[in-house]
Write a structure and sequence with these properties.
Bound molecules: zinc ion
Distance between the termini: 43 Å
Order of helices and strands: EEEEEEHHEHEEEHEHEHEHEHHHHHEEEH
Structural class: alpha/beta
Number of strands: 17
Number of domains: 2
CATH class of the largest domain: Alpha Beta
Radius of gyration: 21 Å
CATH architecture of the largest domain: Alpha-Beta Barrel
CATH superfamily of the largest domain: Metal-dependent hydrolases
Strand content: 15-25%
Length: about 425
Amino acid sequence: MAQTLFTNVEIFDGTGKKPYPGEVLVQGNRIKRVAKGSDQIAREGARVIDGQGATVLPGLVEAHAHITYSDAPTLKSMGDIPPEEHTLLTARNAKLMLDMGFTSLFSAASAKPRLEIAVRNWINEGKLPGPRLKAASPEIVATGGLGDERQLHMYHTSIEIIADGPIEVRRVCREMIREGVDTIKVNISGDNFTATCRAEMLSYAEDEIAAAAEVAHSRGVNLACHARADAAVRMALKHGYNVIYHCDFATEETIDLLEAKKKEIFLAPAAGAIYATCYEAGDWGITPEVADKVMDLPRKMENTARVYREIRKRGIRALPGGDYGFAWTPMGTNARDLEHFVNLFGYEPQEAIMAATKWGGELMGMGDELGLVKAGYLADLIMVDGDPCQDITLFQDQQNILMVMKNGEFHRAPQPRRRAARRAKAAE
Ligand SMILES: [Zn+2]
C-alpha cells in the first residue's frame, strides 16, 4: 500500500494540545504512525514530504454548512435558482470548501431536497471532488416561520419545506429520509429575519416538534434544529434533538439542562452570518442602524456571546460553523468562525481548533476514526503555513493552506511555504 511520510512538521493533533514537532506516516487511507520530537519514522518505501516546519492538523469540519447557498443577499433569491443550476452550484461549493481545508461538512439544511444528497453520493463514488458530507433536508418549517416566503396570493419557495401539524411533519420527515438525508432539520424558533416570527418566538408547537423527533429517532438519522428562543432549546432537549443550533437566548437554567446532556448533544452558535449582518452588510442595505433598530441583531449577538462563554466553561461541545453563503459571508470564508470563537466567545485558539477537528469528527458520527492525528485514524489532513494557535486567522487565506489530503489522497498537493520564503527573502 502507498505510504506518504510528512517530516519536519509541527503536529496539532486535534486534542487541544499546542503543536509539537514530529512526523506523520500515512498508509492507504489511514494514519499509520505518529512520531514525536526526535523520534524518526523509517523512510524506506515512502514518499517523503519535507514540511519545512509547517503545521499538520486534522482537516477542518464545518458544523453548520449550507453549500447550497449562492452568496446571494436573501433566502428568497436562492429559491429562484432552477434545480439544474443549483446542483452545479452545490458541487462547486463542495470543491471550494475542500480547497479551503474543510474535509468534512455537517449540513444545517439543503436549499432544495435532493441537492446535497446527489452531490454527497457523487463525492462518495469518487465522481466529484468534495468533503465528507452529511446531507440534510431543507429547513422544515411551519407556516409563517423562518423560510416561508409565500404571499397569500402567490406561491414562492425559498430554502424550506412547509409542514403544519404533526401529520404533515411526519410525512415530510419520512419523505426526506426515503430520499436519503443523513439529517432532518427543523426550525423550532423563528429569527430576526422573519418579521412575524422573531428569534424569541416558537414557530412550531410541541406536538409537531415531537412528531419530527419520533420519525428521526425511529429511522436512525440525525435530528438538528434552529433554536434561538429559550423555549425552543428546551423543546429540543426534551425531544432528543442531537444538534441544537444557536441557543442565543438560553437562560442559566437551560444551560444547566444542556450541560446535563453534554455527552449526547452538539451546539453551533453560527456566529459568522449574524456578526457580518450586524456590522458588514451595509452595501446590501443592512446598515448597522438597520441591523440594530429594525432587526435587533446586536442584542442577539450579545446574548450569543454571554451564552457561549458559559457553554465553553461547562465543556459542552460547541463547534464553529456559521451559515456562510450569503453575499456578505461568501462561501469559502467559513474558517472565520474560528476567529469568532476566540474573539467573541473567549476560546483559546487551540480550543477553537479542537472544536473544529476532534469534536467535528464526533459530530460526523466518526469520533473513533476522524478528527485526530492519531495512528488508525482516517488520513484527512491539512498543512498550514504557520502556527494557527498563534494566528487563528491563518485558515482564512487559501495561500496559507499548503496541502489538503482527504481519505489518504491529495486533493491539493503540498506546496512550499510561502510565508517562510518571504521572510527569508526579507532577511537577505
Ligand atoms: Zn443555518
